[in-house]
């Protein structure tokens, strides 16, 4: 038993690892839909190497990106519909991670055994979501997305980029509405409103709302964090009438860890528009505002990529950082619960083995 007991420091280290690569038992967007065609793609998300491909019916599949024979990348292999054939010696692994053919030898015992992890996949609004379960939670949880990505009356554009910063800083950044009036103070959407505010935090059905007291509809004035089988962020910024109809401009955001110091951000830019108004907005977005939105996002990227990885350890947070503290607390809590459950499970298994050995 003693070698199964870990110290508090070791436990904290495991928790920190889990936080820095992303908490599990959640869905994450892993690629925009346009990023996967017939040729398999090799990516890293949450520190895991994944081969992703699309079959002839357009369905996307994802398995761990390592051949069970000698570790060649399956993503370098050949797309055979619902399976990939390894480029090195031809082993075929299907979408469920099962080895279905070992062509170089007869009756290989590896055949018909599951050797690769297979990721549950959903493709929604132009993005591919994968479920990352831990050992205790391999079955996917229900994925619920905000109305803006689900209901017909909303229209959106997905904007995605890889940032050389931890997903933790990308999330902190969205949970920090005060930066709008400063970092983006020269932009067409965030040039107005007070540069000082008292912030308040409020519990919502699925998470937390963080907002400026006494100011709304002027700038980036509020943000919501939601935990509904995935971690999403929602905010709205005002939109000048001259750049198109539809009222406020909502953003639904996600930050998917790639590794400790890299992430992929997803921002759906959304407006409540239908019919010809939707067409008009699409036209104006493409012709007038998309470039300006990218400029704003670039300001975030430059700022965040220049943060030291350990900037977090030398901070002096103040009142308007309440949202940052809260989100960090929630993510750390989830990681602790997950690591503790795994430790408890391992301990139980050892007890069972020891018990049966002594009988
Ligand atoms: S390494 Fe894949 S078949 Fe040999
Ligand atoms: Fe920003």
Note the topology:
Layout: H1 8-21, E1 26-32, E2 41-45, E3 48-54, E4 60-64, E5 78-79, E6 83-85, E7 92-94, E8 99-101, E9 121-124, E10 127-132, E11 155-163, H2 167-174, H3 179-183, E12 199-203, E13 207-212, E14 222-227, E15 231-237, E16 249-259, E17 262-271, H4 275-305, H5 322-358
Antiparallel strand pairs: 1-10, 2-3, 3-4, 5-6, 6-7, 7-8, 9-10, 11-17, 12-13, 13-14, 14-15, 15-16, 16-17
Name some characteristics of this structure.
binds fe (ii) ion, 2 domains, 5 helices, 359 residues, Naphthalene 1,2-dioxygenase Alpha Subunit, Chain A, domain 1, 7-stranded antiparallel sheet, alpha+beta, 4-stranded antiparallel sheet, globular, Rieske Iron-sulfur Protein, binds FE2/S2 (inorganic) cluster
Structural notes for this entry:
The chain is α+β, with helices and mostly antiparallel strands. It folds into two domains: 40-132, Rieske Iron-sulfur Protein; 147-326, Alpha-Beta Complex (Naphthalene 1,2-dioxygenase Alpha Subunit, Chain A, domain 1). The chain has helices at 8-21, 167-174, 179-183, 275-305, 322-358; strands spanning 26-32, 41-45, 48-54, 60-64, 78-79, 83-85, 92-94, 99-101, 121-124, 127-132, 155-163, 199-203, 207-212, 222-227, 231-237, 249-259, 262-271. It has a seven-stranded antiparallel sheet with strand order 11-17-16-15-14-13-12, covered by helices on one side. A four-stranded antiparallel sheet has the order 5-6-7-8, with no helix packed on it. Helix 1 (8-21) packs across helix 5 and helix 2 (167-174) crosses helix 5. Fe (ii) ion binds next to helix 3.
């Amino acid at each position: 038993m003693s070698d199964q007991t870990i110290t508090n420091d070791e436990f904290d280290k495991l928790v920190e690892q889990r936080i820095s690569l992303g908490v599990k038992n959640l869905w994450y967007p892993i690629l925009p839909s346009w990023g996967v065609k017939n040729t398999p793609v090799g990516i890293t998300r949450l520190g895991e190497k994944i081969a992703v491909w699309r079959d002839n019916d357009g369905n996307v599949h994802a398995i761990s990106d390592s051949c069970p024979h000698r570790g060649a990348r399956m993503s370098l292999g050949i797309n055979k519909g619902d399976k990939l054939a390894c480029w090195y010696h031809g082993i075929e692994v299907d979408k469920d991670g099962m080895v279905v053919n070992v062509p170089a030898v007869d009756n290989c015992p590896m055949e018909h055994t599951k050797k690769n992890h297979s990721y549950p996949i959903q493709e929604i609004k132009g993005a591919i979501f994968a479920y990352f379960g831990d050992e205790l939670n391999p079955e996917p949880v229900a994925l619920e997305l905000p109305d803006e990505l689900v209901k017909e009356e909303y229209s959106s554009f997905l904007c995605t980029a890889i940032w050389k910063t931890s997903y933790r800083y990308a999330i902190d950044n969205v949970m920090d509405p005060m930066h709008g009036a400063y970092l983006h103070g020269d932009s067409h959407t965030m040039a107005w409103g007070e540069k000082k505010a008292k912030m308040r935090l409020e519990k919502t059905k699925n998470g937390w709302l963080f907002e400026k007291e006494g100011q709304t509809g002027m700038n980036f004035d509020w943000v919501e964090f939601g935990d509904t089988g995935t971690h999403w962020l929602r905010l709205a910024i005002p939109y000048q009438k001259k750049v198109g109809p539809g009222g406020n401009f909502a953003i639904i955001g996600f930050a998917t860890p790639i590794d400790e110091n890299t992430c992929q951000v997803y921002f759906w830019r959304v407006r409540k528009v239908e019919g010809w108004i939707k067409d008009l907005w699409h036209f104006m977005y493409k012709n007038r505002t998309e470039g300006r939105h990218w400029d704003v996002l670039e300001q975030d990227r430059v700022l965040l990529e220049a943060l030291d990885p350990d900037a977090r350890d030398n901070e002096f947070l103040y009142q308007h950082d309440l949202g940052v503290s809260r989100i960090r607390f929630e993510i750390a809590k989830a990681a602790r619960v997950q690591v503790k459950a795994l430790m408890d499970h391992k301990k139980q298994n050892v007890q069972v083995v020891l018990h049966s050995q002594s009988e």
